[in-house]
Each structure stands twice: as structure tokens, then as C-alpha cells.
Design a protein that fits this description.
With about 60 residues, the protein is mainly α. The protein has 3 helices and no strands. Helices cover about 65% and strands about 0% of the residues. It starts with 14 loop residues before the first helix and ends with a helix.
């Protein structure tokens, strides 16, 4: 896990939202809708859905563009 204190959040235009994101979640309701659908329609556990998100975001972060 990355220590948020080491990130340069002070100069990011979304820093306020990013700092509160872990408390209030995404503002895009499609994210919540997709999580609910995966859980209820596909029977996935929330921990598995979160791991899927971590994997996708990590792949995006560490890929070479």
C-alpha cells in the first residue's frame, strides 16, 4: 500500500476529492452499479471485486505507454 503522505497530493487538481475518496467512494455512480451487478448478478464476493479493481488499476499504473 502506498503511503498517501508520500504522494504529492498538494499539487493535484482533485486532491480534496482524492483525500476523501476512501471515505465517500467514487462520485461516478456507474462504478457502484458495476460493483453491485458483479455481486448480485455474478455472485462475486466484495473482496474479490476489490481485488479485480486492484489488479486492473495496478496493470494500468505499471504498463508502459
Amino acid at each position: 500500500m502506498t503511503d498517501s503522505n508520500t504522494l504529492q497530493s498538494w499539487n493535484h487538481p482533485d486532491s480534496h476529492e482524492l483525500n476523501d475518496w476512501h471515505l465517500f467512494g467514487p462520485k461516478n455512480s456507474e462504478v457502484a452499479d458495476l460493483v453491485l451487478r458483479l455481486a448480485y448478478e455474478k455472485g462475486m464476493r466484495l473482496a474479490d471485486i476489490e481485488q479485480l479493481m486492484v489488479k486492473a488499476l495496478s496493470e494500468r499504473l505499471f504498463r508502459d505507454d
